């Protein structure tokens, strides 16, 4: 870190686990006896928009109740030049590339900026507010399936039918065996044209956002911290090796072994909300 000039963090679901956000893929979890990864596809939405919207309504509810944890806070501090210089005195840029859609990293940075009023970065260092790249979109964005309009909506329930389905499912021991079918007309609609809306996130089979920028960051980076991800999903699974190929260093932070461990320069086993603060005591204030 002290030698690095261009640092990136790649974050996955493990970053938000301590905040109460389920790690469906990494943890092998289920939702209503269903595999959540099978619902996060365009095909699943086309076949059953009611079921997919109920899944994302659940995820929105969990994210609305969540708050950033200590790992989010450490990464947010690394985004602020005055903090970053404490652990990386030669740093010229820092970026977080996150696969998470919960918005907790942005919340942590915004809170820190309010406390420190650190708006202006020294010459040659990237501005903090531009340091987060949300490659899989944002959970609270609602996107039209017809006109493409995308609006942020942090309402607890986007429509009465989704809230009602939640109440019904509380009466079942195994909710996955009993599907609540919401008519398409009662699902979230576009505020611009009235067509069916979808979650504004990147599903399996879709191209992640900001890939041109991400590729530039990976090519330039001489240090990558891989935090809370199993590194199994492309293209994110290639970022560490991309940094390694041009002589950069790789540090992995994960509870379980990942596919990138053997190629990493440093591997830290444990929960990132514990390991990251221990590794960077200079940032504890």
From TrEMBL:
Its EC number is 2.3.1.-. It catalyses: N(6)-succinyl-L-lysyl-[protein] + NAD(+) + H2O = 2''-O-succinyl-ADP-D-ribose + nicotinamide + L-lysyl-[protein]; N(6)-glutaryl-L-lysyl-[protein] + NAD(+) + H2O = 2''-O-glutaryl-ADP-D-ribose + nicotinamide + L-lysyl-[protein]; N(6)-malonyl-L-lysyl-[protein] + NAD(+) + H2O = 2''-O-malonyl-ADP-D-ribose + nicotinamide + L-lysyl-[protein]. Substrate binds at residues 56, 59. Gene3D superfamilies: SIR2/SIRT2 'Small Domain (3.30.1600.10), TPP-binding domain (3.40.50.1220). Binds 1 zinc ion per subunit. PROSITE patterns: SIRTUIN. It is found in: Mitochondrion. Residues 1-285 form the Deacetylase sirtuin-type domain. GO terms for cellular component: mitochondrion; nucleus. Its cofactor is Zn(2+). It comes from the Eukaryota. PANTHER family: NAD-DEPENDENT PROTEIN DEACYLASE SIRTUIN-5, MITOCHONDRIAL-RELATED. Belongs to the sirtuin family. Class I subfamily. HAMAP family: Sirtuin_ClassIII. In contrast to class I sirtuins, class III sirtuins have only weak deacetylase activity. Difference in substrate specificity is probably due to a larger hydrophobic pocket with 2 residues (Tyr-56 and Arg-59) that bind to malonylated and succinylated substrates and define the specificity. NAD-dependent lysine demalonylase, desuccinylase and deglutarylase that specifically removes malonyl, succinyl and glutaryl groups on target proteins. Has weak NAD-dependent protein deacetylase activity; however this activity may not be physiologically relevant in vivo. This is NAD-dependent protein deacylase. It comes from Paxillus involutus ATCC 200175.
